[in-house]
Write a structure and sequence with these properties.
By secondary structure, the chain is mainly β. The chain has two helices and five strands, in the order βαββββα. A five-stranded mixed beta sheet has the order 1-5-4-3-2. The longest helix is centred in the first third of the chain and has 6 residues.
Amino acid sequence: MVNNVIALDRVQQRHPEINKFDVQVWRNIQKSMRRNTEPYNYVAVGIDDRGRQLEVIAFLDKNSDWVIYHAIEATVKVLRELGMLRR
């Protein structure tokens, strides 16, 4: 069972237009997938409360919390990776 969604401070430091509340998009995703990394990372795209399409990358920590360490407006690269755009 997943408990919380936690955004690391670095998300807002690197992208001031994204705040910790925006990344709650993780709970309202359009599409996601697990990446083949160790530990597993998950990439997702969803719509935030302001209508922006955001991409977020997260992992599950030992407490079963989603830890988001990357969040920006969705890029073409990630939209293609998730099969949301054709080449």
